[in-house]
Design goal:
Elements (H helix, E strand, L loop, with lengths): L1 H31 L7 H31 L1 H18 L6 H29 L5 H28 L1 H10 L4 H19 L6 H8 L4 H8 L11 H18 L6 H33 L7 H24 L4 H8 L7 H27 L1 H21 L6 H15 L1 H8 L9 H29 L4 H8 L3 H7 L14
């Protein structure tokens, strides 16, 4: 039941994440109107993705904190409710900034669900099976990505029949047109509220982690304090200031660069603040059970670096591929962007499972390094060997999706191994999701790079793939945890 809940929660999380990259173009065209300045839609697209990533980073810390304080299951239910309801509300947006604001709140829950589901599964599932289970969890989000593409194709292919059905059940022509025009983006967003029903299953059938209950019973969960969340708020504001500086409303250029440096430092300190205060209180009360507070903070920053490389590669490069496919093949009846997302999703499902199994067999550090090298090669082949949409494009997309998404099968295995039970949800939530802020800052440069490269997705995507070179080296700064039990 725990594995099923985590799988479904992360699958629908992937569905929500995959919605905007696929339907963001039609949505912004509808909301901005035909008279918007050239390039404005691309800047809004990048800014909305960046705001989403900042929200997910904040949610990873916020809901991770909540999971370490009140339990994994209760916090996971709240996170799923948050991302489902606020994704559904995006379907009622009337301005581009409405999408940005609602996606930000929804992403709080998306970031939290990952850290909670992974912590719960790793604490309950037997150690010898954790590699396979980590791969399955990593694959879940990509099943969601794939489902978005399938649903979009079905709607576009049968849009006339669907409209007729809606009119037949009593919907007005005006409301039906609003729901299903512009690639039915409003209907797809509203459908994102459906996963809220998963909460009933979780609360009825999913047991709480015995490891967490043991920590609660000995008083270790009582050292979390609500006032510490002010640090997370300050960190979130600093991260959003960075996004604003690079957005269409901001200044850009050197001024934005200065805001980025200062804002990133404040965000790092703010997001770390609740954990630092917890460690101080737990150490004073003798509740750390031999854990080293400095080591915990070091592992959080190390994990954020690993996740930042992978997430920037994905969000800065691969997530733009459906829009590039639509540019190469403008005929909507060929469903270029949908098939691109589906092909990438199929490759990602394979990659996440294989990566976790390889890491379980050969070790964590060598696997991560090989994934970085493979991702560089796959991105360059995708962007440099294709000039038209067709079978070769989709084959390249399969391998690019497989290698760049394989990290998301690796992280559910490796990140929980870096932290003791008392701070596991918060620690891995910070590590995985603070990487999203790094990805947001880098991803914002995709639009800038496209301007430099004459609106070329291929050149911008190829340039951002160089980020994987950093990952080849930094993984060796962390521990090799193959064959070791989870820290208590």
């Amino acid at each position: 039941m725990v594995l099923l809940a985590a799988f479904l929660g992360w699958m629908f999380d992937g569905f929500e994440m995959g919605l905007f990259p696929l339907i963001g173009g039609p949505a912004l065209a509808d909301l901005l109107g035909p008279n918007s300045p050239p390039g404005d839609a691309a800047k809004w697209f990048g800014s909305i993705i960046a705001v989403f990533l900042v929200g997910a980073a904040t949610g990873g810390v916020l809901f991770g904190w909540l999971g370490d304080k009140i339990g994994r299951v209760k916090a996971m239910s709240l996170s799923i409710f948050t991302y489902a309801i606020f994704t559904g509300l995006c379907g009622f947006a009337t301005e581009a900034w409405h999408i940005a604001a609602l996606r930000f709140i929804a992403s709080l829950g998306m970031g939290g669900e990952w850290s909670l589901g992974v912590a719960l599964v790793n604490e309950i599932w037997p150690g010898k099976s954790r590699a396979l289970v980590a791969g399955l969890i990593g694959a879940a989000a990509n099943v969601g990505f794939l489902l978005v593409g399938v649903l979009s194709i079905v709607l576009v292919s049968f849009i006339g029949s669907v409209k007729g059905f809606m009119l037949g059940v009593g919907l007005s022509e005006e409301l039906t047109a609003k729901l299903f025009d512009h690639s039915a983006w409003r209907f797809l967003m509203i459908s994102g509220a459906f996963p809220a029903l998963l909460i009933f299953f979780i609360r009825l059938f999913v047991p709480e982690s015995k490891k967490w209950e043991a920590e609660r019973d000995r008083g270790a969960t009582g050292h979390w304090a609500n006032i510490d969340l002010l640090g997370v708020l300050v960190g979130c504001i600093a991260a959003l200031a960075i996004i604003w500086a690079w957005s269409p409303a901001g200044s850009g250029g050197w001024a934005a660069g200065g805001v980025t440096v200062v804002g990133l430092a404040i965000a790092l300190l703010g997001y770390l603040f609740p954990v630092r205060k917890y460690l101080e209180r737990a150490a004073a009360a003798g509740s750390l059970r031999g854990a080293d507070g400095r080591q915990v903070l070091h592992m959080m920053i190390f994990g954020a670096g690993l996740a930042g490389v992978a997430l920037l590669g994905t969000w800065g490069s691969i997530q733009w591929a459906p829009r590039w496919a639509a540019q190469l093949e403008p005929d909507p009846l060929r469903h270029a962007k949908e098939y691109t997302q589906i092909t990438s999703g199929v490759g990602a499902i394979v990659g996440t499972i294989v990566a976790a199994l390889v890491a379980g067999r050969f070790g964590r550090r060598i696997t991560y390094s090989l994934l970085c090298v493979g991702s560089i090669a796959a991105c360059l082949i995708l962007y440099q060997a294709n000039t038209a949409y067709g079978p070769m494009f989709l084959v390249s997309m399969f391998f690019a999706g497989m290698l760049t998404a394989a990290f998301y099968g690796f992280f559910p295995l490796y990140l929980p191994e870096l932290f003791p039970t008392a701070v596991r949800a918060t620690g891995q939530g910070f590590s995985y999701n603070f990487g999203r802020i790094l990805a947001a800052i880098g991803g914002l440069q995709t639009a800038t790079l496209m301007v430099w490269f004459g609106n070329s997705f291929a050149k911008a995507g190829s340039a951002l793939a160089a980020i994987y070179l950093i990952g080849v080296f930094i993984v060796w700064l962390g521990p090799e945890t193959k064959g070791k039990p989870l820290p208590e």
